[in-house]
What we know:
Blueprint: E1 8-12, E2 20-23, E3 29-36, E4 39-43, H1 50-59, H2 67-74, E5 85-90, E6 93-98, H3 104-129, H4 133-162, H5 170-183, H6 187-210, H7 214-225, H8 232-245, H9 249-259
Parallel strand pairs: 4-5
Antiparallel strand pairs: 1-2, 2-3, 3-4, 5-6
Amino acid sequence: MAKATIVYFEEIAHYDNTTRIFRTPSRESLWVKSFENGIAVADPMCGCTITSFAEMIAGCFDKDSNFASELLIAFNCNEDTAFTGIQFEFNGVTLLVTKENADKDKIYAEWDAGRKANAEKYRLEREAYMKTPAYRAERAKQLKIQTRREQVETEVLIIDEQTRIEFKDDEAKANWEKWVELYSKYYYSYGVVKYACRWAKYMQHLMKKHNKSIFQIADKASCLSDTEGITGFMHVCAVSMLSECWKYGDDLRKWHNKECGDEDAKGVINPAVLTINVG
């Protein structure tokens, strides 16, 4: 037997001025997008499970539930307006719940059957597609891209191993070596060091090979040099290190700051920091 769902109409959602928001005494949410011809279309909230949502919906049909009366109030309906069902879509499966199937176990069983049917439909469609010329062309294209990516990554690693970083001067080189010695002691910061070295060397290679500027190759070189997966903060740290010591560091700093919206900024902009100007 379903537990009666008790709700109260709280407000109309501001984002569409249509959806009605209901709350339970425990502050759970039940959003209803529309109510026409006796059918309320509910919108499951992000984070809820099908079992908890099914229990809430089933409870709306319990004789002790006030959902029907609150629904009529929320949509400005007459007292004699019929409420016959709740429709909802959960992870690609659309169900209509009425008094006849208002049981959490039945709702879950119907949803699970729909989920399995969708999975089987997708499997059959995928198998059929894999037999078409379009799939073979797509697969060949993806393999070509993957092969090229692997070739470039190999090239980047070879350049990293065989190339030396060009520094601004001897003092910059000495400072770099101190940083490398210090940062190599820790796993996270060592990742910054490895990425900064690899990125700088690969940019040197591209500039000489293609006669292009930092502004033209920095972004592409950054992506290709990230063979281990860095965070945004690690990227900013690498820019900071290279801007201080690398021969082309000033241009790299300007490129980075331009990407962040202010090419003329002093120092290296950290896009994760929010700056508020108070006039």
